[in-house]
Design goal:
The chain contains seven helices and no strands. The protein has about 150 residues and is mainly alpha-helical. The protein folds into two domains: about 90 residues, Uncharacterised protein YqeY/AIM41, N-terminal domain (Hypothetical Protein Yqey, Chain: A, domain1, Orthogonal Bundle); about 50 residues, Arc Repressor Mutant, subunit A.
């Protein structure tokens, strides 16, 4: 079992003991997503995959918040924001833009990327290292800038 999944399980137990219903429900959502993938793909998830699941959940909540804000549903927006805060608590420390740009430069050098066709190689190298620590869509934009 991954260390991250272990810490989620322990946090779930702590939330149960503390009777923190909001936190408990959010942690159960994360663990449920993980379990579903493990059952569907018949694999044991590693930390990188758990991070990608939580990253996807954060993205879904950001999108929902925008939709709820546009619809004037502040009650539902508040629920999504609270879940985001809880999920972010399990994510690694975010990287600064300078650190990300440095990682991009190193990755481009490592794979010998010179043109846009090499972007996939660069992203393949960066994704595991940056997953959950920065917005990968921004990384993609910055890689394009450096390769252009």
């Amino acid at each position: 079992m991954s260390l991250l999944k272990n810490s989620l399980t322990e946090a779930m137990k702590d939330a149960m003991r503390a009777r923190d219903k909001e936190r408990l429900n959010t942690i159960r959502l994360i663990l449920s997503e993980c379990k579903q993938i493990e059952v569907d793909e018949r694999i044991e998830l590693d930390d990188a995959r758990v991070l990608s699941i939580m990253d996807k959940m954060l993205k879904q909540r950001r999108e929902s918040i925008e939709h709820f804000r546009a619809a004037g549903r502040d009650d539902l927006r508040a629920i999504e924001e609270a879940e985001m805060v809880i999920i972010q608590g399990f994510m690694p420390e975010p990287l600064s833009e300078a650190d990300v740009r440095q990682a991009i430069a190193v990755a481009i050098q490592e794979v010998g990327a010179e043109k846009m066709q090499d972007m996939g190689k660069v992203m393949a190298l960066l994704k595991p290292a940056l997953q959950g620590r920065t917005d990968l869509s921004k990384v993609s934009i910055w890689v394009k800038e450096q390769l252009a």
